[in-house]
Give the backbone structure.
Amino acid sequence: EADIYQTPRYLVIGTGKKITLECSQTMGHDKMYWYQQDPGMELHLIHYSYGVNSTEKGDLSSESTVSRIRTEHFPLTLESARPSHTSQYLCASSESVGGAWNEQFFGPGTRLTVL
Amino acid sequence: EDQVTQSPEALRLQEGESSSLNCSYTVSGLRGLFWYRQDPGKGPEFLFTLYSAGEEKEKERLKATLTKKESFLHITAPKPEDSATYLCALYGGATNKLIFGTGTLLAVQP
């Protein structure tokens, strides 16, 4: 059973607001990821981290930022939300074991709507 | 460029009617192929990992197989609760990022 949590599950906000989407995992995984997914579309990687104080941008251009101060916590921040940010945001984590390419475990997601 | 294509886009089955979902890929060195199940409004749920051609994994009514060009998710005697979107994803040699297909939306009618 994967133990990865995201809050809030749903968020409706106005344009220009600053928001932080929370993601925590209790599995001790080194690697964590943020994906964006629109209905009926594939997941797109927007940020990832391979450990504390390590963050990288993914393939999809995003105006969001992330931080990794603790192993278990990987929050995503939007400084000024716009309607184009409306989407489902999914957090995931995976373990580093012997250099293998291991499966990622996903949280329940945050559905963000920017008016 | 690493690429993943899933077919069909949507599949409707009667309860008990077995079928297969396809995930074809082009990749410069497969490092791992994964199957996920995703229910509406939720995050993907991990099902299987396959690393090499010929490998098979099984769980309840689901069985995943892998060849050098594609993977199949076989569903035997499906039930309505198997209705979901099934996602295929892989790590290829050209990138260290997980590449997802767009999924197959499966509907099982009682």
User: Anything to note?
Assistant: The radius of gyration of chain A is 14 Å. Residues 67 and 86 of chain A are 21 Å apart (CA to CA). The longest strand of chain A covers residues 44-51. Chain A has no helices and eleven strands.
